[in-house]
Amino acid sequence: MAEGPLRGIRVLDLSRLVCGNMLTMLLGDFGADVVKVEEPGPGDPLRAWIADGIAAHWKVYGRNKRSIALDLRSAEGRAVLERLVARADVLVEGFRPGTLERWGLAPAMLLERHPDLVIVRISGFGQSGEYRMRAGYGSLIEGLSGFASRNGFPDRPPLLPSFPLADMVAGMMGAFATVSAVRAREAGGRGQVVDLSLLEPMVAMFGADAVLQGFKGTVRGRTGSRGSSAAPRNTFLAGDGNWLTISAPMQSMTEKLFDAMGRPELKSDPRFATNTVRLENVEALEAEITGWLSTRSAAEAWATLDAAGVTAAPILDAAGLAADPHVLSRGVFRAVKDTELGQVTMPDVVPRFSATPGAVRRPAPAVGQDSRAVLAEAGHDEAAIDALIAAKVVAES
Q1: Cα Rg for the chain, rounded, in angstroms?
Q2: Residues 6+ positions from 274 with CB-CB distance below 8 Å
Q3: What is the mean pLDDT of residues 376-383?
């Protein structure tokens, strides 16, 4: 079994819901020892996200982790946490700003006692600023960041994504930040605090908008599936009722598209000759493409476009993706053993490393499944562990 390039890095995960769990899942996928510190009883609220009777989110984002159920609201529980911190390289937390300080676990104090510790603080709006104390779930961030104002169609309301996009973007950026901070420490530095908000990674995705707004006063709006910088770029309905996405952001690609459609004369049509004029005449351009597609099935059109080197692809749902020949041949999904369901299918570890790949080494744990083992590693003997469990400071599954 692959050990991964992060083997030997110990992570304490105090976060909840999606962002922190994605961050630590990525670290665990590549070999870090991730200990999930959860509330006794219900555990991480992500476990309660049930669909069709399955805690599907937890099955994925809880993989490659161990679980200890610890009451951090009690002084005894926080004392146990301090012993765990002494062995950790990374501490990830997602409480409202000020919570660690209120518990006597302020990052400055932790770094004074554990100068090599990397502390990742996840919050909606960051540890400073006007909104720092506000609750910051991803849906709010997707609205405030400008994403919703750009997502959807101009004649319809702003559109939030149907999945926790802001959390996922911040989680991926947070994993990069964590590894960077660990690398800085290994290069001769010390531990530090990583201030990870959900807001700023989403804002960073729209960097070009800031340039345009600041320099020209331009505020981009919703364009549906059309591109705002290049045409054609949209979803198109084929004659059999199935959909394709076609994107031709380069002049040469658009010319290939016109040739594949059997309409080479469109290359010299003054409405379509350059990207600039195509954007100005996008509705007429799309009408030409839709007209060509209307007499063909999506599969037939895709085969024609692919043979001509045109960048196009069918729009698939989850079932179509699972049956796609490329997805199957590349092993995009993986069947993983699960203690509750026997086996579950989930996306495999990404990205792929040629020499030190990541792997799914263990399924998502039950709440407190590893409490005894984690406490023993931190130096607690059996009597002390039994006493903590009896006092309900610690729980086990």
Answers
A1: 25
A2: 251
A3: 97
| Active-site choice (167, 195, 317, 338) | 167
pTM more than 0.90: yes
- The residue written with tokens 């990742």 in the block is 120
- Checking if the pLDDT of 1 tops 60, the result is no
Q: In whole angstroms, how far apart are CA 296 and each of 11, 287, 304?
A: 54, 15, 10
pLDDT at 370: 98
Reply yes or no on whether 167 is catalytic.
Answer: yes
Q: Which of 14, 59, 10, 25 is nearest to 171 (CA)?
A: 25
Provide the β-strand partners of residue 395. Answer: 69
